[in-house]
Write a structure and sequence with these properties.
Layout (H helix, E strand, L loop, with lengths): L2 E3 L4 E7 L2 E4 L1 E3 L4 E7 L3 E4 L3 E9 L2 E4 L14 E18 L10 E5 L2 E12 L12 E7 L3 E2 L4 E2 L4 E3 L2 E7 L10 E4 L1 E3 L62 E3 L4 H6 L1 H13 L2 H5 L5 H6 L3 E18 L1 E2 L4 E18 L6 E22 L6 E23 L5 E16 L4 E16 L2 E2 L7 E15 L2 E2 L4 E3 L2 E14 L2 E2 L5 E14 L3 E5 L2 E6 L3 E14 L2 E12 L6 E13 L17
Parallel strand pairs: 1-4, 2-5, 3-6, 5-7, 6-8, 7-9, 8-9, 9-10, 9-11, 10-12, 11-13, 11-14
Antiparallel strand pairs: 12-17, 15-16, 16-17, 18-19, 20-22, 20-38, 21-35, 22-23, 23-24, 24-25, 25-26, 26-28, 27-28, 28-31, 29-30, 30-34, 31-33, 32-33, 33-36, 34-35, 36-37, 37-38
Protein name: Autotransporter domain-containing protein
Pfam families: AC_1 (PF18883), Autotransporter (PF03797)
């Protein structure tokens, strides 16, 4: 006990530059005026009361709750007839969950709450949840007490699970106008009525840009709610909220982490497919069943390599409507290790490769605006992800040049996703397999033209470990899904008198992803992102065999999502590849690159 005043006593307690600990109680019929000033710190260890409580440039700290933190009995209250704070701090403990979760509280009984006090909230392991009503009461006024606007504020919004909590004055239905609540949802206000002849204000969705960190502005205390509030969804959906929010509807308060952390999985899957490539992307056009037969059999050493550069402009289907923009750069090198024939007229090639890729992208997405009245599109963070891949391939060539190509690849990922307030390490691994086939058809279209229909089926699994971003554990999760490709490739072969061979070509592919939906866990809250999409790709390139031992290749292409699919992306890419052979091994290794998400 720090101080106990009993009737009919009148006590004035003045503490400057002091460190205090204990409870202060005021008996019925007594008066107890408590003033803290000049940096004093009072640690409240039990329920306390005072006639007046003044905190000037001082801090009131509620001691940690005892017992079960999910029960109100372990938390404490301060009851004051009037309260005034000037540059004051009040540290409270709150179980950040749904409506009515337990918390320390300041109770103002019959008087006023004035001044400016910053509430610092310590989460007592609350998992986070979407509040559907008034939320969590932290300041209560009783017996006609009133509270001034701006008397309490947060230094920044609070995150628990996938939800952010803000401080609101009054209930969502307009009752208890002098009480203060923590809520993880906001009520969409009614539309503004624009008088005739005036310019209509801009909409709630703003173009991408940098905003101040969440919660640093005046809390949304003066919003007049509608008479009837419609409950919000209990969990996050794959679809983003409507561009025009429904008046009176509850919507979750979201921060930059939803968009930024949510794109880790799709970017990793895109990098896995990029490193995998296709047969022509690894060894080009000149290695066919005919010139494989001209090589010596057994162990060989024909090397090839690729340099990959891709511009990323991806959009994903998720609640935060994330978008990524940036570059994917990569290097790949491989070696044909064995060539032989297992059946008459057929040839086989086996080899290994290694690859490194880096994706450095900015992320934009929806966040709740500072007034907690709408969502706005803004820059939410960045993702920098490295991929280290190793793979093995086996290619079978049949009579007439048809082929089957099988590849297995493993990839290790590391990097980090950063927002304005947090950094999440991203560590994971992936496995991908591919089976591809093609059948060249000679056509009389000049310059030894062939048309090659192709099909490819890819299975991929990507698994990221849960890591803490300094607030709570985040798990980007595991994805498993298929990617399919059907396409056609037209190629001309031009043989020059100096021995050089030029092979220009064009190709078109239709890509489809299935079942790779990504779900990021924020504590126990699941935030899904859809990865099913259909894309169309067009590309053109040229292979130049400049000597017996060297071929070069360059390609440019463009890929975009078809309307009505779950994802949308636009990708422009460029690739330069080369092959070097040794001895009497006759082959040319070239590559091209298309991109996938």
């Amino acid at each position: 006990m720090l101080l106990s005043t009993q009737a009919p006593s009148v006590t004035t307690f003045d503490a400057g530059q002091s460190t205090l600990s204990g409870a202060i109680t005021t008996g019925a019929g007594s008066t107890n005026n408590v003033t803290l000033h000049d940096g004093s710190v009072w640690t409240v260890t039990g329920n306390s009361s005072a006639t007046t409580l003044v905190s000037n440039a001082s801090t009131i700290v509620f001691a940690a709750p005892t017992g079960d933190v999910t029960q109100a009995a372990g938390y404490k209250t301060i009851t004051a007839g009037s309260y005034s704070g000037t540059s004051a701090l009040m540290q409270i403990n709150t179980y950040l969950g749904g409506d009515g979760s337990p918390s320390d509280r300041l109770i103002v009984n019959g008087g006023t709450a004035t001044g400016a006090t910053t509430l610092v909230v310590h989460n007592t392991t609350g998992p986070g949840a979407m509040t559907q009503a008034d939320g969590i009461q932290v300041v209560q006024t009783i017996n006609g007490a009133t509270g001034a606007s701006g008397a309490f504020s947060l230094p920044q919004r609070l995150r628990a699970g996938a939800y952010y909590y803000d401080l609101f004055r009054g209930s969502i239905t307009g009752g208890s106008p002098n009480d203060w609540f923590l809520r993880s949802a906001f009520v969409a206000p009614p539309p503004l009525v624009v008088p005739p002849g005036t310019v209509e204000p801009p909409g709630t969705t703003q173009p991408p840009g940098t905003t101040t960190p969440p919660g640093t502005t005046t809390p949304p205390s003066e919003t007049i709610p509608p008479a009837e509030v419609k409950p919000g969804p209990p969990s996050f959906a794959e679809d983003p909220p409507p561009a025009e929010l429904v008046p009176g509807q509850l919507y979750p308060i979201v921060g930059p982490e939803l968009a930024t952390y949510g794109v880790i999985q799709p970017i990793a899957r895109q990098m896995g497919v990029t490193m995998l490539g296709t047969l022509h992307e690894r060894i080009g056009d000149t290695l066919t069943s005919q010139n494989v037969a001209a090589d010596r059999e057994g162990w060989v050493d024909s090397a090839w390599g690729r340099i990959i550069a891709q511009q990323i402009d991806n959009r994903y289907r998720a609640y935060a409507n994330p978008e990524t923009g940036g570059q994917l750069l990569g290097l790949q090198a491989g070696l044909d290790l064995w060539r032989g024939s297992l059946w008459p007229g057929h040839r086989d090639v086996a080899g290994l490769y290694f690859a490194y890729g880096n994706s450095n992208v900015s992320v934009d997405g929806l966040v709740t605006n500072a007034a907690a009245t709408a969502y706005e599109m803004t820059r939410t963070g960045r993702l920098n992800l490295n991929a280290y891949s190793g793979g093995a391939y086996w290619t079978h060539y049949g009579p007439g040049g048809w082929y089957l190509d099988a590849v297995f690849q493993g990839t290790a990922y590391d990097g980090e996703a950063t927002t304005q307030t947090s950094t999440l390490p991203a560590n994971g691994h992936g496995f991908i397999t591919s089976l591809e086939g093609g059948y060249p058809i000679p056509l009389p279209l000049g310059a030894s033209f062939i048309l090659e229909p192709q099909m490819q089926l890819i299975w991929q699994r990507v698994d990221f470990s849960a890591r803490s971003d300094g607030t709570e554990p985040i798990d980007p999760g595991t994805t498993t899904g298929l990617t399919g490709r059907i396409g056609v490739r037209g190629q001309w072969t031009i043989e020059r008198t100096d021995g050089e061979v030029w092979q220009p070509y064009a190709r078109a592919n239709l890509w489809r992803d299935w079942g790779g939906d990504a779900t990021t866990l924020f504590g126990n809250d699941a935030v899904p992102l859809a990865e099913e999409a259909t894309r169309l790709e067009f590309a053109g390139g040229i292979t130049a065999k400049i000597s017996r031992r060297m071929s070069l290749y360059a390609q440019a292409g463009y890929q975009f999502a078809l309307g009505g699919t779950d994802g949308d992306d636009v990708r422009a890419y460029r690739v330069i590849s080369a092959c070097v052979t040794r001895g009497d091994v006759v082959s040319a290794c070239t590559g091209d690159k298309h991109e996938n998400s």
